[in-house]
């Protein structure tokens, strides 16, 4: 037991925190949890779920969404696999969008628009990335030749001959057809008694 003098000395000294919280993994788990949550925002169905369960009515949750905007900075954006989540995070800052996502029709509209964006993304990018070829210079047309001096036309052929690749494919198809139609039976038969 402590003497009364020691108790007085202890009460006079300012209280220092006994232990400060030290994150054991230096924030790695928090980083991963926030990354996972923000990437879930790329899914309109998940946003609809949040709206249906009234998460968007909680002021703390709205503040958390504002806090997550740091993911748009270059040092963090490189970890994001689904960039649509940043677009939806920006839209979620608007109260009208948050309330609209509670309706299933708006969820379907957002999902459909996202699908069409992905469907046409490559073609739209190629339109802007690939250089357009220069127009071919138009050569002057030769003067018309009288019809009496034209050479006779070559004889018409019945059909163009297939390329070797087409010929090999035709052989392979025809061989399997002929094998069954010629009466070749590859099944094992039981020998008679």
UniProtKB/TrEMBL annotation:
Keyword vocabulary terms for this entry: Activator, Nucleus, Transcription, Transcription regulation
**Region of interest: Disordered:** 1-24, 132-193
Q: Which InterPro entries match?
A: Med31_sf, Mediator_Med31
- Where does the UniProt annotation locate this protein? Nucleus
GO BP of this protein: regulation of DNA-templated transcription
Q: Identify the GO cellular component terms for this protein.
A: mediator complex
Stretches with biased composition (Pro residues)? 132-163
Signal peptide start and end residues? none
GO MF terms listed in the record are:
transcription coregulator activity
Pfam families according to UniProt: Med31
Q: How does it assemble?
A: Component of the Mediator complex.
Q: Spell out the family assignment given in the record's similarity comment.
A: Belongs to the Mediator complex subunit 31 family.
Record function comment: Component of the Mediator complex, a coactivator involved in the regulated transcription of nearly all RNA polymerase II-dependent genes. Mediator functions as a bridge to convey information from gene-specific regulatory proteins to the basal RNA polymerase II transcription machinery. Mediator is recruited to promoters by direct interactions with regulatory proteins and serves as a scaffold for the assembly of a functional preinitiation complex with RNA polymerase II and the general transcription factors.
Q: What is this protein called?
A: Mediator of RNA polymerase II transcription subunit 31
Origin species, per record, is: Brassica carinata (Ethiopian mustard)
């Amino acid at each position: 037991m402590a003497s009364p003098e020691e108790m007085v000395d202890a009460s006079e000294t300012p209280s220092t925190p006994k232990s400060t919280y030290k994150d054991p993994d230096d924030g790695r788990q928090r980083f991963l949890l926030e990354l996972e949550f923000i990437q879930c925002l790329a899914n309109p169905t998940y946003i609809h779920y949040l709206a249906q369960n009234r998460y968007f009515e909680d002021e703390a949750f709205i503040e958390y969404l504002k806090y997550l905007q740091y993911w748009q900075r270059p040092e963090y954006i490189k970890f994001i696999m689904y960039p649509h989540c940043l677009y939806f995070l920006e839209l979620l800052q608007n109260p009208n969008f948050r309330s609209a996502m509670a309706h299933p029709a708006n969820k379907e509209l957002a999902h459909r628009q996202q699908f069409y964006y992905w469907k046409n993304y490559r073609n739209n990018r190629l339109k802007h990335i690939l250089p357009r070829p220069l127009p071919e210079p138009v050569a002057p047309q030769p003067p018309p030749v009288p019809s009496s001096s034209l050479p006779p036309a070559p004889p018409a052929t019945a059909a163009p001959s297939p390329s070797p690749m087409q010929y090999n494919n035709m052989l392979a198809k025809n061989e399997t057809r002929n094998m069954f139609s010629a009466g070749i039976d590859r099944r094992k038969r039981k020998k008679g008694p």
